[in-house]
Design goal:
The complex is a heterotrimer of chains A (about 290), B (about 350) and C (about 325). Chain A is mainly alpha-helical. Chain A is about 70% helix and about 0% strand. Chain B contains 15 helices and 14 strands. In chain B, the strands form three sheets. In chain B, strands 1, 2, 3, 4, 6, 7, 8, 9 and 12 form a nine-stranded mixed sheet that branches. In chain B, strands 5-10-11 form a three-stranded mixed sheet. A two-stranded antiparallel ribbon of chain B has the order 13-14. Chain B is elongated and about 65 Å long. Classes of the chains: A mainly alpha (about 290), B alpha/beta (about 350), C mainly alpha (about 325). Chains in contact: A-B, A-C, B-C.
Chain lengths: ~290, ~350, ~325
């Protein structure tokens, strides 16, 4: 070994490296600028709504003169409907993704499923609402016209392709070596899936699910023709129910300034709730990894 | 849409608390939950009424998805009543599951609001001029046509930005119907409808979308519902009516549009271009539609039918007092008592499976 | 029980599982297959109902519905060519603006930024997904569109020599604003999925590149990007799906003019926006036309997906890995030999 220095990196390559690294940083910052602007705007317009008495603890009154009330029924309604949609779409979504990565692989059937799921991601959210409208609402299926559970079904249709697609990407990234090692040790397929594949991809699955839930909570269009609205608090899934996106959509058009402020306050609340869910799920996922 | 509360006597309704006064309708509210959908113009009215009736045990849920959607929902019997700005046509009646009653409930003016610094409300505009502006023929505010109508006003040379609705809407229908009535050039080239081929201008979604663009753009002009314009301090034009007078869209002038119009047997009135000399010419009426027999055709049971009837009774009765120009009232024009009486007479014909509703 | 050292009853080898032991595996496999089949049936049923509702308008206009340029609600004529144009234009703008930024962010967060910043930055980018679509639209109406208008005017006049991009008079609501809002909306999803792909690059690849004397950027270019291509593409596809189908945000800022805009800052219309604007008041053939618009979107996504898949499989090297998504993956070390 000679004592000469290692070959120097050419100036051009060094420059390229610096420029590209700078661009990547710039890109990240560019991504954050709209976020900061939007959150700032939401806080600016909506924070005063949080200060209104009874904003979180009372239902909207609809009254033009007196107190406009709060958004309690909308918050609980949204949570209930999205919870139901999540219960439907996440197990099914991960199940289908598991099928595609573990069993279906490259078969024509699996490729067909994959293909159509991809296509579903491009369907406008309003179409899911209209689909449920013509299938479930018009015929008064279940004895009701508009109902919360029908909205939940529409939202789960919206969430499903996102869950399936993102879960599949994540599951595929589990190294085959891990699977093969487990199989070589004599584990049955189901054990490999539940004890090796799923835990390894858990945090990625959580990310994908959270994206889907965030989407589900913030969509208005699927609710317009399936759930309609109600002012009063109700937990009955077979009736019309209030939801946050719907409230934002209609209240922002109100002539009354106080009600417009409530719309912004609701938007801020929605973002805050999704953020909390996000942090909670991340926390749980990291804890389960350590366990 | 403005819902006009019907006062039993005069138009200048007092600011007395609405719920306590009228003993007749207040006590006889049938309890229950009913659902409605339709007109966005009337939404603030129905929501206000719903909040009053809630304390009496009647819950009313209203989804403001548009007049047409309201009709569709009623035809599918997924709602108990529909809110519609335009009167139902024979083809609309045909789509329903059974006979439908339509009840005029209130009216709201459609203002021509503008954003022109230094110019207050009351700029005089007539039909052909407004049509010229919205057709793109009149391009600046100091155009001779506008100047001729407003001799004492110094108009800037700002260019006019037209703002119209991007979504299908009963308000557009009201506005374009008026334009077709007063300007033959508009009628032949563009015509009327919920959605028309605007030759120029920016589209804003919903009434508030149009209002947002007008507010943000100097020199903009758009058609904005009265309630919105009044609540948010817009500047709007005084429009020439059928009598030749330039009229501002005040509540009183909007209420005047109800007088002198023809009232057909099915109460399908139109308040556009009213013949009344004091009327503001661009006024849109709004209706509540319900099945004549909600039990047979609308899938309702007896108690729901009673609730529907209570709702409607309130609408033409105590509810009317919440509408008007008072500080404690919704900025819509109430029904004249004669029309309210006709509504009540028609309401008496509502039945449940053939039997009268108590 | 007659058994030997290597067999049990029935002549099975000890290493083989008993039929009962195999049961859970069978149940899992067939259970999941049934689930996938159910989903496929659901999607097909959705497709069929969509076709059913749009039948009327296709029988009246045929393919003119898709490519003709005359959407006239008043005259009850529905040719949606301008809508298709708007959908494609706004989605392309969204992808051009959004994907590079999202991927740059994903790379930076995973490869370059200080470790302790990683989690906070991730949470921040994902926070963009928490914003409801209606809020994006409203922010566009009240903040973005009016604020950007002067810049758009400057751009249009300075670059007026570029066809379609410059030269027109910018409107308050236009293709560009809609595309920009969409770009922001797809950032979190493209970034998150890309991130998953980038995070799983084996360190051996990265270390090998660095050991060979590559700069950080070169390491990223040679080791990280190729390996994470499926993740990035997956994210971009989901992002494109979102852009193409976004309804509420777009309807507020596109201007809703059913014409083929003559320049980037002209008012336009998209297939999704028209449904939101007109469904409430539509009847008869109009309703059918709106369902047909949804159907066209469905088919559009079908075609774009097909092209993307073909592009990816063609561009990849050899046949490695499971190729399950139609995209080949550089497998882990086990398959490297």
């Amino acid at each position: 070994m000679s004592a000469t220095a290692l070959p120097q990196i050419s100036t051009r390559r060094r420059l390229t490296d610096k420029v590209m690294r700078g661009s990547l940083l710039a890109g990240t910052l560019i991504a954050l600028i709209p976020l900061i602007l939007i959150i700032y705007y939401l806080i600016h317009k909506g924070l005063s709504a949080w200060a209104m008495s009874g904003f979180f603890t009372t239902d909207p009154t609809g009254s033009f003169f007196g107190s406009p009330g709060g958004i309690r029924s909308a918050i609980l309604g949204s949570l209930e409907i999205v919870a139901l949609a999540t219960l439907i779409s996440i197990p099914i979504g991960i199940g289908v993704a598991l099928y595609l990565t573990e069993f279906g692989k490259d078969s024509w059937f699996a490729n067909t499923v994959r293909y159509f799921v991809d296509v579903m991601t491009g369907v406008p959210s309003i179409m899911f609402g209209l689909f449920i409208y013509i299938v479930l609402v018009i015929g008064r299926f279940g004895g009701s016209g508009f109902a919360a559970w029908k909205g939940a079904v529409a939202i789960s249709l919206l969430m499903l392709p996102i869950v399936i697609r993102s879960a599949e990407v994540v599951l595929l990234l589990v190294p085959s070596s891990l699977r093969e090692a487990a199989l070589a040790l004599g584990a049955p397929r189901w054990r490999v899936v539940f004890k090796v594949v799923l835990p390894t991809s858990a945090s990625g699955l959580v990310t994908g699910s959270l994206l889907a839930i965030a989407r589900g909570m913030g969509e208005t269009a699927p609710l317009l023709f399936t759930v309609s609205t109600a002012f009063a608090l109700t937990f009955s899934l077979n009736q019309q129910m209030n939801t946050m996106p719907f409230l934002i959509y209609t209240d922002i058009t109100s002539p009354r300034a106080a009600i417009q402020t409530i719309a912004w306050g609701t938007a801020l609340t929605l973002v805050a709730i999704v953020l909390i869910l996000n942090l909670l799920a991340r926390f749980v996922a990291s804890r389960s990894r350590m366990a | 849409m403005a819902i006009v509360a019907c006062g039993s006597s005069s138009k200048t309704t007092t600011t007395a608390a609405t719920s306590a006064t009228t003993s007749s309708s207040a006590s006889s509210v049938a309890p229950g939950t009913i659902n409605g959908a339709g007109s966005t113009l009337a939404a603030p009215i129905y929501q206000q009424w719903a909040s009053t009736l809630k304390s009496k045990g009647l819950t009313v849920n209203y989804n403001p998805i548009g007049s047409g959607a309201g009709q569709t929902e009623l035809a599918a019997a997924t709602v108990n009543f529909g809110g519609s700005d335009p009167a139902l046509k024979p083809s609309d009646f045909a789509k329903m599951k059974g006979a439908v009653l339509q009840f005029p409930v209130a009216a709201g003016a459609i203002t021509v609001s503008y954003n022109l610094s230094g110019i207050k409300s009351g700029l005089k505009l007539d039909g052909p001029t407004v049509a010229g502006i919205f057709m793109g023929k009149i391009k600046t505010w100091n155009d001779p046509a506008i100047k001729a109508l407003n001799p004492g006003v110094s108009l800037p040379s700002t260019s006019i930005t037209v703002v119209h609705r991007s979504d299908s809407s009963g308000t557009t229908e009201g506005f374009t119907t008026w334009l077709s009535d007063v300007d033959p050039a508009w009628k032949s080239s563009i015509g009327e409808g919920k959605d028309v081929n605007w030759p120029t201008g920016t589209g804003g979604k919903g009434n508030s979308g149009v209002a947002a663009v007008v507010k943000q753009t100097a020199g903009a002009v758009g058609y904005v519902e009265q309630a919105y314009a009044l609540e948010n301090g817009f500047t709007y034009a005084a429009i020439k009516n059928s009598h030749g007078s330039y009229v501002l869209p005040t509540i009183a002038n909007t209420s005047a549009a109800f007088l002198g119009i023809a009232v057909p047997a099915d109460l399908g009135i139109s308040t556009i271009n009213s013949p009344n000399p004091g009327a503001y010419p661009i006024v849109s009426q709004t209706f509540l539609d319900a099945y004549k027999d909600p039990c047979k055709d609308g899938g309702a049971n007896a108690s729901t039918a009673a609730a529907i009837k209570s709702w409607l009774t309130y609408a033409f009765g105590a509810g009317q007092q919440t509408l008007g120009a008072g500080s404690n009232q919704l900025p819509y024009a109430p029904l004249p008592s004669a029309l309210a009486d006709k509504d009540n007479t028609q309401l008496a014909t509502m039945v449940c499976n053939g039997a009268a509703i108590s | 029980m007659e058994a030997s050292a290597t067999t049990v009853t029935g002549g099975r080898s000890v290493l083989e599982r008993s039929p009962i032991g195999r049961l859970p595996d069978r149940v899992l496999k067939w259970g999941l297959s049934a689930l996938a089949a159910l989903i496929l049936i659901l999607i097909v049923y959705f497709f069929i109902r969509l076709i059913g509702q749009s039948g009327h308008v296709f029988s009246t206009y045929g393919l003119n519905f898709v490519f003709g340029n005359n959407w006239d609600v008043q005259a009850n004529i529905y040719h949606g060519g301008a809508l298709l144009f708007g959908t494609i234009v706004t989605s392309v703008i969204a992808l051009i603006l959004g994907v590079p930024v999202a991927v740059a962010g994903a790379i930076y967060i995973n490869e370059l930024c200080p470790r302790r910043l990683r989690n906070p930055l991730t949470i921040l980018v994902d926070l963009l997904a928490a914003v409801p679509s209606v809020v994006y639209g409203l922010w566009g109406v009240f903040v973005l569109a009016p604020r950007l208008l002067p810049a758009e005017k400057w751009f249009a006049s300075t670059f007026s020599f570029i066809p379609w991009i410059g030269g027109g008079i910018p409107q308050l609501y236009n293709y560009f604003i809609a595309g920009l809002i969409l770009a922001i909306m797809i950032l979190p999803i493209v970034s998150a999925i890309s991130r998953e792909g980038i995070a799983t690059v084996p360190s051996e690849h990265k270390e090998a590149a660095l050991a060979l004397g590559a700069t950080r950027w070169e390491m990223i270019r040679m080791a990280v990007l190729p390996y994470s291509r499926p993740g990035i593409t997956g994210g971009a596809m989901l992002g494109m799906g979102r852009a193409v189908g976004e309804t509420i945000a777009v309807v507020l800022v596109i201007g809703s003019a059913p014409k083929i805009g003559t320049h980037l800052f002209a008012q336009g219309y998209t297939l999704a926006a028209v449904i939101a604007n007109e469904f409430g008041e539509a009847t008869g053939i109009h309703t059918s036309a709106l369902f047909a618009a949804g159907l066209v979107l469905f088919v559009l996504t079908l075609i774009v997906n097909m092209i993307a898949r073909w592009f990816i499989t063609r561009g990849s090297h050899g046949t490695r890995g499971t190729g399950a998504t139609g995209m080949t993956i550089a497998s882990g070390p086990a398959n490297e030999k």
